[in-house]
Amino acid sequence: MIKSIYRLRKPWEFTEVIEKGKKVSNLEFAIFYSPNHLNNYRFGISIPRKLVKKAVQRNYYKRQIKSILVKHKEICQDLFFSHCDLVIIIRPGFLLTSQFSAKQKSLTELLSSISQKKSRFEQPASKRVIYA
Predict the structure, then answer these.
(1) For residue 70, what pLDDT band results from cuts at 50, 70 and 90?
(2) C-alpha of 88 from chain center
(3) For residues 76-113, b (16+ Cβ closer than 10 Å) or e, as one string?
(4) 79 or 96, greater pLDDT
(5) Which of 61, 62, 73, 96 lies 20 to 30 Å from 51, alpha-carbon distance?
């Protein structure tokens, strides 16, 4: 179970992150992230009703994503301790992937790419490395 302080709960919190944040995506997920002014990270999971009709299935997919986040918390510690809001939205490729391990790999790769981007741009200008 994930504590409520680590979750985005209100619809306006989701919209704020989606509108003002940055986006990283692949075939299975679209992740929007933006900094917050709290002492912890928060995340929200959204599964479009157009994509998954039944609420039971939407909740099942949300549980899968939550278990991935809890299991790989130590891998993306930079992201989790950087005071960031995340909105994870599944895409049609998520439903086509039947293996949980493939979904897990896809999400952890996206989260690690976010933490790499954040650490690269939080460096001082004199130590920043520009890749061409």
Answers:
(1) confident
(2) 4
(3) bebbbebebbbbbbbeeebeeeeeeeebbebbbebbee
(4) 96
(5) 73
* CA 131 to each of CA 68, 117, 120: distance values in angstroms, whole numbers, following the listed order: 31, 12, 11
Distances (CA, A) of 14 to 19, 29, 61, 96, 109: 9, 16, 18, 25, 22
Residue appearing with tokens 């998954």: 52
Is the dihedral angle over the CA atoms 117, 34, 108, 79 positive or is it negative? positive
Instruction: Please give the Cα distance from 97 to 68 (Å, whole number).
Output: 15
SS3 87: strand
Question: What is the tens place of the pLDDT at every residue in 99-131?
Answer: 999 999 999 888 888 877 765 545 444 455 555
Which domains are delineated in the chain? 4-114 (3.30.230.10)
CA-CA distances (angstroms) from residue 125 to 5, 14, 121, 122? Answer: 33, 31, 9, 9
Cα dist. 21→11, 34, 58, 101, 105 in Å?
15, 4, 24, 28, 23
Radius of gyration, CA atoms only, the chain: 15
Both tokens of 74, joined, read 């130590």
